[in-house]
Amino acid sequence: MRPLVRLVPAFALVTGLLCTAAPAQAGQAVGGKQPEAVGWGGAVSSVDADATAAGLEVLRRGGNAVDAAVATAAALGVTEPYSAGIGGGGYFVYYDARTGKVTTLDGRETASRTADSSLFLENGQPLAFNDAVTSGLSVGVPGTAATWEQALRRWGSRDLAEVLKPAERIADRGFTVDQTFQDQTALNQARFQDFPASRALFLPNGKLPVVGSTLRNPDLAATYRELGRTDTAALYRGPIGADIVRTLQHPPVDPASGRNARPGKVDAADLAAYQVRQQDPTHVTYRGLDVYGIAPSSSGGTTVGEALNILGTSSRADLADPVQYDHRFLEASRISFADRNRWVGDPRAVQVPTRQLLDPAYGASRACLIDPKHALTSPLAPGDPYHPAACAGSGQPVAEPYEGLSTTHLTVADRWGNVVAYTLTIEQTGGSGIAVPGRGFLLNNELTDFNFAPLTPGVPDPNLPGPAKRPRSSISPTIVLKDGKPYLAAGSPGGASIITTVLQVLTGRIDRGLTLEQAIAAPRASQRNTAATQAEPAFLASPEAAKLQAMGHVFTSTPEIGAATGIERLPDGRWLAAAEPVRRGGGAAGVVHPSR
């Protein structure tokens, strides 16, 4: 009997990703945005036209890729406030053209030093997820501003005050509300109504912002100016931080709403103690290319890397057939997620076998599970990276926890050949739903990325809350080098589906011969060691889907997966910037000096 293609609701109440149309063809513009650009002098790709323009402005004025990345990120904090901002965190991957090295910054949010494994328990039972999200309990120490400061200090050529100016201007003058922004506001309307500061900021006159209207945020412009003057000290040791702590410890909820917005634990000492971690990237070799990603506390680099090692055991001929490509891609994702869920957490708090997970020999020991004619069954047991054994599992399968899907990614390159892949987030669409009064930004709900309680009884859980611990992420900013020089860089939002999106974009470009813009636009599927694979309607409508079902794959429909951006260095030295043609309202790619 052929497996059922089960249509399920699209997590719309959480993700804000409402577009149900099939992806457009590469190169088509949506809403005036251009998803592909080619030229000289540097490139920027993000989900938003104003943010991409901010980055290009910095490049045109002589700034480098790091300067432009921070400018783009700050602008996204204005125009994409439900996905990013200084109330959140992220991961920054940087290629230095002078040294030829890739370095990363872990700017993930942290729990309070007083947090423990019972953070989300009441009367010994885990809180309902929605109760935990819209509360001070979910708010971790923000890392975004510290990431900007560290990136500029180490590799930038401009100071923070200067690169924040384009974003300040957008916040002061306002930006044009589009359908995606209105849709995402509508998904948060009930929460925003319950917090006067959020209501005043995002619901003008108590109503949804009108498409085509201008939304201003002078409070955020003033906050950015204060941040720039103090080089982030105002947030980590000053008045902005004091306002953050006051807000999360005493959530300013409307008493008439009846909402129980639980207080959080983060305090001024936690903010003052926060540090961005500079660390080595993950690294694997795939088809002769060097692939670099972000190491734990994110699971992105280890899981993408392990999946590539698994796929690397298949020849290009194996992957030439579209059905076999899809089958092996889904199986590599399934296997690597089985290991990710069991082994990856914050390495400062738990032992994480990063080196072992990325060992090609371990990938080969797991790849032998793949049957070219039949799909594996999930949940699949993890392997033991410390003692690899061919085709063997180790212990019980570990369930996939829920992870919020709203994040944003930007990719930047400059005329000197430096490259940045940077993914930043406040977790859910709208984060905690709690805006800091008078400051113009939302607080994250990143701590809900912890598992509230052990997912599998009797199996050690690396992702439980703990003091000053960072919750596991799936963020996967990736830079690929060819012969030591930039080849491409990419990343995406999408919660745990970030990993499969980045993997699909990379293999689409490297193995299938798609252009980067085609690889980004291609229909997506996401298998994360679950009984059914999430897939977009266009994927389900493909001729390959029926053949995959006959092999035992089961699919559920979801409107869209991810919203990737990327850049590629062309053989003649030009930069190609690529973004989504349709997903999340379409992305915006630009170059300093267009050549076509």
What would you say this structure looks like, in words?
With 596 residues, this protein is of the alpha+beta class. It has a single domain (36-279, 400-593), classed as Gamma-glutamyltranspeptidase, small (S) subunit (Glutamine Phosphoribosylpyrophosphate, subunit 1, domain 1, 4-Layer Sandwich), CATH 3.60.20.40. 34% of the residues lie in helices and 17% in strands. Strands 2, 3, 4, 9, 10, 11, 12, 13, 14, 15, 19, 20 and 21 form a 13-stranded antiparallel sheet that branches. A four-stranded mixed sheet has the order 1-18-17-16. It has a two-stranded antiparallel sheet with strand order 5-6. Helix 7 packs antiparallel against helix 10, helix 14 packs across helix 16 (322-343) and helix 14 crosses helix 18. Its EC number is 2.3.2.2, 3.4.19.13. Belongs to the gamma-glutamyltransferase family. L-glutamate binds at residues 108, 449, 473-474, 495.
CATH topology name: Glutamine Phosphoribosylpyrophosphate, subunit 1, domain 1
**Counting H and I runs of at least 4 residues, what is the number of helices?**
22
Mean pLDDT: 92
Overall helicity: 25-40%
Strand runs, count: 21
Largest sheet: 13 strands, antiparallel
Any idea how many domains? 1
Radius of gyration: 22 Å
**What's the CATH architecture name?**
4-Layer Sandwich
Distance between the termini: 51 Å
Low-confidence stretches: 1-30
Given the C-alpha coordinates, what overall shape results? globular
The percentage of residues in β strands lies in 15-25%
Brief description of this entry?
Its EC number is 2.3.2.2, 3.4.19.13. With 596 residues, this protein is α+β, with helices and mostly antiparallel strands.
